[in-house]
């Protein structure tokens, strides 16, 4: 690997960045298959500069070593692996036409929301480039205020605004009314933009998924709880495809996070990824 990197003319610190990034992504996503698909999709987007052995092989080394720390080796049991799954979903036995039709609209909305969050965060970063510390402090204040206001208005936990991991997704899908879900959505959107645009980066992936999951819960309040697994799979995939332009990663994560409901959610997840990516491409050209 070192010889390949040297032959490609990469600086000494670049291999460490690549290996560290893949190890970190593997630790967050937990599933090495998801991280591998993410790596290949990023290589596809990056073109020849990324899609070459000198970059891909060190990335796989980072992925493998990071996952080894989770599962352990020999007598050491490791740190424990991450299980990507929403456990509270009802069983979804077969695909329903109404869920797909509603999912088309949902995927467009989710992709646009994720896209607008990314654009707003970019504009915020450019505006505060000369005063990064002030921007960071202001973003922390805005995020805290958003969390407090959501709690005061809805009675829901402030963690729905400040966190975005898979443990929060069950809470998003259990929001009681459309009004409460709308307030949580606005609060999460504001916090996401503030943190992503200022440098308080907890990542782009799971906050985008959180926005999609909240919108899926609103759809479930309209169609009924039996539609929630399909809508959640659709929204998760659309959020990743629309927000990050990664449709294959979106489809895979949409399936893995909702597979507890049954394999039928694969179709809505693919629908969300395709529609989300098409929406993002249209938005980029607009």
Structural class by helix and strand composition: mainly alpha
Low-confidence stretches: 1-10
Compute the CA-based radius of gyration.
19 Å
Major sheet attributes: none
Give an overview in words.
The longest helix has 31 residues, at 97-127. The model is unreliable at 1-10 (pLDDT under 50). The chain is mainly alpha-helical. Helix content is 74%, strand content 0%. The protein starts with a helix and ends with a helix. The chain has helices spanning 2-7, 13-29, 32-46, 53-71, 97-127, 132-154, 159-162, 166-173, 178-198, 205-223, 228-244, 247-258, 266-285. It is globular. The protein has 13 helices and no strands.
Question: Outline of this structure?
Answer:
This protein has 286 residues and is an all-alpha fold.
Helices and strands in order:
Blueprint: H1 2-7, H2 13-29, H3 32-46, H4 53-71, H5 97-127, H6 132-154, H7 159-162, H8 166-173, H9 178-198, H10 205-223, H11 228-244, H12 247-258, H13 266-285
Helix pairs in contact: 2-3, 2-4, 3-4, 3-12, 5-9, 5-10, 5-11, 5-13, 6-9, 8-10, 9-10, 10-11, 11-12, 11-13, 12-13
Q: What tags apply to this protein structure?
A:
single chain, 286 residues, mainly alpha, 13 helices, disordered N terminus
């Amino acid at each position: 690997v070192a010889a390949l990197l040297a032959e490609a003319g990469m600086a000494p610190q670049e291999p460490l960045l690549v290996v560290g990034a893949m190890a970190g992504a593997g630790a967050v996503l937990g599933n090495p298959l998801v991280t591998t698909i993410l790596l290949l999709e990023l290589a596809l987007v990056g073109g020849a500069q990324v899609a070459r052995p000198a970059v891909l092989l060190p990335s796989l080394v980072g992925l493998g070593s990071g996952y080894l720390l989770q599962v352990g080796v020999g007598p050491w049991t490791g740190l424990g692996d991450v299980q990507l799954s929403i456990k509270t979903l009802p069983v979804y036995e077969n695909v329903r036409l109404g869920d797909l039709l509603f999912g088309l609209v949902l995927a467009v909305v989710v992709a646009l929301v994720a896209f607008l969050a990314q654009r707003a965060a970019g504009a915020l970063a450019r505006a505060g480039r000369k005063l990064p510390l002030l921007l960071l402090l202001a973003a922390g204040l805005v995020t805290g205020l958003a969390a407090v206001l959501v709690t005061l208005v809805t009675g829901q936990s402030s963690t729905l605004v400040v966190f975005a991991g898979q443990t929060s997704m069950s809470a998003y899908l259990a929001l009681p009314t459309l009004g409460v879900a709308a307030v949580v959505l606005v609060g999460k959107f504001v916090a996401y933009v503030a943190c992503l645009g200022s440098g308080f980066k907890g990542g782009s992936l799971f906050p985008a998924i959180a926005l999609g999951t909240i919108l899926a819960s609103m759809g479930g309040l309209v169609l009924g709880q039996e539609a929630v697994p399909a809508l959640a799979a659709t929204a998760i995939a659309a959020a990743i495809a629309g927000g990050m332009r990664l449709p294959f990663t979106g489809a895979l994560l949409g399936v893995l996070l909702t597979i507890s409901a049954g394999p039928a959610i694969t179709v809505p997840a693919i629908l969300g990824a395709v529609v989300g990516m098409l929406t993002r491409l249209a938005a980029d050209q607009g």
